[in-house]
Automatic annotation (TrEMBL):
Organism for this UniProt entry: Methylacidiphilum caldifontis
Residues binding a divalent metal cation, per UniProt: 9, 11, 43
Gene: ispF
Keywords tagged on the record: Isoprene biosynthesis, Lyase, Metal-binding
Cofactor(s) annotated in UniProt: a divalent metal cation
SUPFAM superfamilies (UniProt xref): IpsF-like
EC number: 4.6.1.12
Domain 2-C-methyl-D-erythritol 2,4-cyclodiphosphate synthase: 2-155
Annotated positions for site Transition state stabilizer: 35, 134
UniProt protein name: 2-C-methyl-D-erythritol 2,4-cyclodiphosphate synthase
Length: 160
């Protein structure tokens, strides 16, 4: 059995917040608003994995009404989803993702993000794709009002 999943997320940029993307703290004058750390990339990956299993979204599993998740690292969500996949005998074949961000330049942080994501899920680094692009200064992303991310994944079970 093989399944694919898709995830999408957007968070607003604001002053007085740390910028955390892919679990990495990135030096920048703005950060993402959110109940947790606002890690838009991790949220998109989490939704792709949950969707592939046919489950509800990240907001259902980790509601922002629950103080337990306030300011928590979103990598915790990924660890929990990794446990669900493991318990239900799913294997992650690959994850691919893209962050759409006008500034700052993310390429120096991509490898570290891949390490954080793969270790949180307990999978090989080579199974995780993370790419970054700008929005060519267009729209809300181009105006640096927010950052968006897309993710897809393939999971399998019962295949050797
Ligand atoms: Zn989110």
């Amino acid at each position: 059995m093989i399944r694919t999943g898709i995830g999408y997320d957007v968070h607003r940029l604001a002053q007085g917040r740390k910028l955390i993307l892919g679990g990495v703290n990135i030096p920048f004058e703005l950060g993402l608003l959110g109940h947790s750390d606002g890690d838009v990339l991790i949220h998109a990956i989490a939704d792709a994995l949950l969707g592939a299993m046919g489950k509800r979204d990240i907001g259902f599993f980790f509601p922002n009404s629950d103080p337990k998740w306030k300011d928590v690292s979103s990598l915790v969500f990924l660890e929990e989803i990794g446990q669900i996949l493991f318990k239900e005998k799913w294997r992650i074949e690959n994850i691919d993702s893209i962050v759409i961000c006008e500034r700052p330049k993310l390429s120096p942080f991509i490898e570290e993000m891949k390490q954080k994501v793969s270790s949180s899920l307990g999978i090989d680094l080579a199974l995780v794709g993370i790419k970054a692009t700008t929005n060519e200064k267009l729209g809300f992303i181009g105006r640096q009002e927010g950052i968006a991310a897309f993710a897809s994944c393939l999971i399998s079970k019962g295949i050797d």
